[in-house]
Amino acid sequence: MIRIFDIEWWREIFQSLSRNKKRSIFTSLGVIWGTFMLVLLLGAGMGISGIVTKQLGDSSQKISFISTDATSISYKGMPAGRWWEMRYMDLEEIKKIPGIRLAGAIGYSNWGGKMVCDGTSYNISYTGYDAAFQEIDKISMIAG
Fold first, then answer.
1. What residues make up the domain containing 49?
2. At residue 83, does pLDDT exceed 60?
3. Would you list the DSSP string of 62-127?
4. pLDDT tens string 31-48
5. Where are the transmembrane segments (predicted)?
6. Domain membership flag for residue 127
7. Which pLDDT does position 41 carry in this prediction?
């Protein structure tokens, strides 16, 4: 057991530090730098966490989105690069999974669509939300 008030123990420590000055300095700098980086990264992580939580607002923290895309590997003779899509009946099957409280669908077009209003044509992208999304992601409707 180390006794803090043991003079011999302290002499041995100071003797070791005075003999190996470079090693002692570099070790001290390493400990100080490591502590500084730990505090800095923990602070940054807490700050980012606060920002993300603030940005999400009323959104649930236990929310997951599934989107479709082209496949990257072939499977059972089907080629890679094929497109797949989800249908509304897939959403009904997802709702049957134990632990899923709510499920809703979003329909959107990134390809854009053509809208004509008062003789003026616009290229737009659009998003449509399922009624269940009002509980999942609190959407504030402006009009409509």
1. 7-56
2. yes
3. S-------B-SS-BTTBPTT-B----HHHHHHHHTSTT------EEEEEEEEEEEETTEEEEEEEE
4. 999 999 999 999 999 999
5. 25-52
6. yes
7. 97
